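Attaching the record inline, Q. Sequence:
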Amino acid sequence: MDSSGSSECGERAATGLGVSKVADPVRPRGHRGGVIVMHRALAHFRLGPMNLVTAIFVFVLFSSIWLVLLPKICQFWARVLALGIRVLPLRAELGLTQHHLTSFISFDIPYLRMEPVLPSPLAWWLTCGITLALFAGSFPLSGKLIPVRYLLRGILLVPTTALLYFVFLPARFPHTPDSYMEGLVTAGIALISVIPLLFGLTFYIFDFGFLKKASLTAIAMTHLVLFLPLQVLLQALFLQKTVLFMPVLYIIFGMPVNILIIIAFYSWGMTWSFRSARNV
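Structure, as predicted:
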């Protein structure tokens, strides 16, 4: 009797344990056992009809405003570059390249024109010494800074390859400061033009409300409009010394910096409170 009663209790306990295991869903856990909660963006994501309509409207609105203001913005950039030539120790001239988007929209892309200067022995050895010093400085970094260590070494690959190139093939360098500067401004225009589309696919679809969506777009586009001519002037100060710095300026401090600015604004916008979360 005792054995049968204990077996029945064991069966009931096992059955109850099995039911509890089935009833409680298995939640993802981290490496320390903590529960990984769903990201707030996914938790509040509701792609309703109004969000979709708002996303399309904001995209069309800012794309239209940008196309209309682009000729004026290029004129503003030309004035900033002309002012930089006058007040900075810069040996450059202002160049203009005409572009036509449609028969109604045309604009002149401003850029700086400079003579290409090959690296002198002093410039080459100085750059080589700085590169080696930064590489050696990456070794004493602590274990907590391993990402910084490898990021620094990855960046140093660019000046290293440039130094080797100008040792063996200095006269065959295919790029000039003129073409580089024009390409930098052109790429900046293209990047600013796609901000409404990028935010439309990644930010407008969330329930932030029209005002926040429009504000973030306007802030990001305005910031890059003001940043681009200053970026061109700063890079020109280095390029007038030698074209040895062009690979580093293009790969590290060119469009990647502008893209990181857009990501930073997007990350800031995603910290704002959702409209639906505020109304709950």
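The radius of gyration is 28 Å. The chain is about 65% helix and 5% strand.

More tomorrow.
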